[in-house]
Design a protein that fits this description.
mainly beta; Immunoglobulin-like; 3 domains; 4 helices; 33 strands; 37% strand
Amino acid sequence: MRITHLLIAILLISFLSACSQQGSETNANQEKGDTAHVKEENFTGKKVNEFDLTAMETTWKLTAENTINAWTYNDTVPGEQLRVKEGEVVKVNLTNELQEPVSIHWHGIPVPNTEDGIPGITQDAVLPGESYTYEFVANDPGTYWYHSHQNGVDQLDKGLYGTIIVEPTDPKEEADIDRDYTLVLDEWESGNYQVENTDNTDHDNMDMNNKSGMMDGKGMGHDMSSYDIFTINGRSYENSKPLKVRKGDLVKLRFINAGYMVHQIHIPIDYKITHVDGQKVNKPQSVNKSLFEIAPGERIDVEFTADGSSNFTIDRHGEAEASQAMKIDVVYEDRNVQDNKHETTTNTVDITQLGKQRESQFSINDNFDVEYEMDLATQMSMDAEMGMVWTINGKTFPDVSPLKVNKGDKVKVTLTNNSMDKATHPMHLHGHFFQVLSKNGEPLSHSPIMKDTLNVKPGETYEVAFLADNPGNWLFHCHDLHHASNGMVSMVNYNNFKAFYQDNGNVDNQPE
């Protein structure tokens, strides 16, 4: 009898152990027998848009006093804009003329895993003098961007990024747009480049903390005050050209943050935020002269009607001296009008309170197949270049336990920012859109918000959900790449995924 009881106890312990998961994953996800394959795409009968992008070094003038050696796609910062229609094929031939390996990641576009452009995960980085071709169907309309994912913390800093716009095929979606402008925000470290006639910028007034509690700087890790030049589309205000409009125009502005700081953007007229990360806001309301925040990797689409009353300036709010260069004028080309009196404001848009509620893909009360918690934090480390590492569940990449899913799973992830350096963490999921379910325990009660990059501020907690519908091995990481390159990276791995790539060590692949 005692032996029987002992066997039962052993079996019970084994069963409980098998049901447990490492890290912070709950509702243990058992692997299914079916092999998961890369998402298949049918190119038959579709228009193919073929582009040639060359990674190359370029002399680029940021300001009247500052000329740098930038790394570019096709000799410009940002790189050449790619524009296609929903449902069309994108074919990009990348040629590397730099002295370092590069890649292209299609930020926000749920491409097949083979096309994600992550060295060491989905491909080898493209060596100097070599070429590589990406090909996928642009099924999801919206505002996106592309950038190198090889040693991204340095390569993006040097300008290796561009924009890609997928226009909707439904004529009702954007048929009335008269002017369509893309505005890419970035910051530059003049001291790290070959700079001509550099003035000595005073960093004493860098706004390290603003009223929302986020950091313009990154505290103990990377001194963000070294970013002393802010630009829109690779140029400071003095070198920029105004955005021209006519009275009655419906104007669309696509803001993309390609840098590592959160920027507060002020538009001093009534406007609507119509899309976040390329995804529609349901029945967006008019926003009266408010600020909106855009974090690294995020995109915000704004629309307004040019009423003909006055010219005005879109600018960045903040105490940093460099903020004065991150602005651009909107002027009427068909009339002589006065300039708008630009007033300051502290009103800030909350993206979780945009638009009107409607039926959505997920609900906070759904039964999820997998639930996973991501504790975003920091640790001091004598071995780290910055003296600090940024962690997920107490670990740094590649030692972070992956989020394991089966194809078809409904997945909920809880993101909490406990970083002791009080830094923000714009968390970016590759290959999928996710729905924001709640913020600090409060379910969203306005428009469903679908994103691929979500800024989690100090002390905040978000619940998000996604459908595991794109088999592969995907990154889920902070898009302040100083944090990612120092540990804040995890993986979403599909169970029984049929591998198509193996890193054989022939290339120095650096996925962050």
